[in-house]
Design goal:
This protein is mainly alpha-helical and about 140 residues long. Helix content is about 75%, strand content about 5%. The chain is built from five helices and two strands, in the order ββααααα. Strands 1-2 form a two-stranded antiparallel ribbon. The chain is flat. The two termini are about 35 Å apart.
């Protein structure tokens, strides 16, 4: 509890579902608004830009697969950061860990001749180890 002028601020034990949903919706609306301002500042109609994005990316199979392909590494970084933060450990190197792991896994894929199942397993191990070393 903290006094701020005539008010007493008290931390909520559990945030409400409505509060979580409203903050998420507000974040999306603000992001779309900022994007619209950026589009407009570059001379592009924001409604046309967003409709093109929806039509060519979100409504086509190839576009959806590209979104998934680009989202997976970001989700993995997010999960890693969430685990670190829950353990009260400050980790700001998620992108570096991702890139170090990607370089190590690619090196194994290109330069280590192994049969297919072992090859994939070694790629995972090399990526994990390189990311861990970078994190340390």
């Amino acid at each position: 509890m903290r006094n701020v002028g005539p008010f007493i601020l008290e931390r909520r034990r559990v945030p409400s579902h409505v509060g979580i949903l409203s903050v998420s919706v507000l974040a999306v609306v603000l992001a779309l608004g900022v994007g619209a301002i950026l589009f407009y500042s570059q001379g592009v109609d924001p409604l046309h830009a967003y409709s093109t994005i929806a039509r060519r990316v979100l409504l086509t199979r190839r576009g959806q697969m590209e979104v998934v392909r680009r989202t997976i590494p970001l989700l993995l970084c997010g999960v890693g950061l969430a685990v670190a933060f829950r353990a009260r450990f400050w980790n700001i190197g998620a992108e570096g860990q991702l890139l170090a792991g990607a370089v190590a896994a690619t090196g194994v894929a290109l330069f280590v001749p192994l049969p297919n199942p072992w090859h994939i397993i070694l790629m995972f191990v090399a990526g994990f180890a390189a990311g861990a070393v970078w994190g340390v």
